[in-house]
Design brief:
- The chain has a single domain, classed as Vaccinia Virus protein VP39 (Rossmann fold).
- It is globular and about 40 Å long.
- It is α/β, with parallel strands linked by helices and about 160 residues long.
- It has an eight-stranded mixed β-sheet.
- The chain binds S-adenosylmethionine.
Length: about 160
């Protein structure tokens, strides 16, 4: 199981945070391949950002900078928000989960490692779990660090 590409719609807007290290292989390529045209990519590494740009639509936006500042300062909403920070930044990401949800209209996708899930007493093999008070599902994406997962939260009109 990997990125929840089946939840994407062509006309979705998206914010792809921490997008660059692997050329977007873990997230941005799924947004591109689903046909999204209005995507903003953010990473602190300008070189990696520049290197990946040619592989993505010219309609996409690129922002070099601190993704945490983007999260903390933004008042905009996107249909889809993806967050793929290094594992040593997971606590900083998860402490902003409610803010990330408020920035998301439909689908929030956040990377997390097995050790972090274990520390929260969460078993990602269950069909769904409660995380920080929200009903979420998990997609395994690699075996690195004993397993890394996407937390997937699909917002309903009640969420
Ligand atoms: C797991 S990698 C992302 C991989 C990427 N999603 C891909 O598929 O290629 C984590 C990324 O976080 C970026 N990063 C680290 N600290 C950051 C920060 N404070 N703000 C924005 N990006 C940051 C790194 O440059 C790196 O590209």
């Amino acid at each position: 199981m990997t990125f929840p590409a089946e939840l994407l719609r062509k006309d979705d807007t998206a914010l792809c945070l921490f997008c660059a290290a692997f050329g977007g292989r873990q997230d941005a390529v799924f947004l591109r391949d689903a046909g999204l045209r209005d995507v903003t990519c953010v990473d602190i590494d300008g070189e990696k950002l520049n290197a990946m740009k040619p592989n993505f639509p010219t309609s996409w936006g690129w922002r070099q900078g601190d993704a945490f500042a983007v999260i903390d300062e933004t008042v905009t909403q996107w249909d889809v928000v993806t967050v793929d920070a290094w594992s040593n930044l997971e606590d900083q990401v998860l402490s902003r989960f409610d803010k990330l949800l408020s920035m998301t209209k439909r689908v929030l996708v956040v990377g997390v490692s097995m050790p972090r899930l274990e520390a929260m007493g969460i078993d990602p093999s269950r069909a769904s779990s409660s995380l920080l008070g929200h009903n979420v599902t998990f997609r395994k994406r690699s075996s690195y660090l004993g397993g890394t997962y996407w937390i997937v939260m699909e917002k309903t009109s009640h969420a």
